[in-house]
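Anyone else keep sequences and structure tokens together like this?

Example one:
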Amino acid sequence: MATATNQFSPDYAVPPGWILKERLEAEAISQAEFASASMRSFPNTDP
């Protein structure tokens, strides 16, 4: 079986918070709902 190699080599970095924010918006989930689901308090999730 042939193994696949990852050819993606970006020349930039994206902060993980940007990706999370995009996913929350796409799923129509508020930061407060996400914080509750992940057992965190909301003020700690958005400094």
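And example two:
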Amino acid sequence: MLSRRTLLQKTAKILSVTAFLTLSSTSLLACKKEPTEPVIELTTNQGTIVMQLHPSYAPKTVALFLKHVDAGFYNNIIFHRVIPNFMAQTGGFNDGFIRKEPLGTVVNESVGGLPNIKHSVAMARTSAPDSASSQFYINVANNTNLNARNGQPGYTVFGTVIEGQEVAPNITQLPQGQYASQGYRNAPNTSVIITSAKRIEPRAPLVFDTPLPSAPATNK
């Protein structure tokens, strides 16, 4: 039969181990971070636009976009193509239509991705699906014709304007046509300049009202 002292020692040891395990579990829970999405603030001479990015739907596109942001690439870039009830495009030229050399291209991630709806942000490209680089546009209307369909690539949506949603539509309403002879007939007559593009505090992932397919796998 165990003595009273031995029983007390064993009980104390069990309680000590239990307390350690409880503290360890609490520490693990405290270290676990909730998922977030990157947020970018574009300061322009027409107002501030805040965009939330969606890496779970377009991981490689978001990575390339952030590479440009972190390098200061978009500072002093103009909106060079704006069309009412369609979109506002930027990311390629300094004031005076001086082309900037992008920091790479990215594969098209539109198939199984997000749709081109109002306030969404997508990559501009040539007719080649994998040619997107630094230029992007903000949809000011629902442009379903730009979506992927029947397995054929469209234009990759990688973000959403969450603040300053009136800025891009306002930009598309500015007078234009002054630079048509230079090949920029849809450029505003008065330059709309991104004076600063920077990361701000990440936010919880957005929940979309529009029915969407499941996010594609990121191990492409």
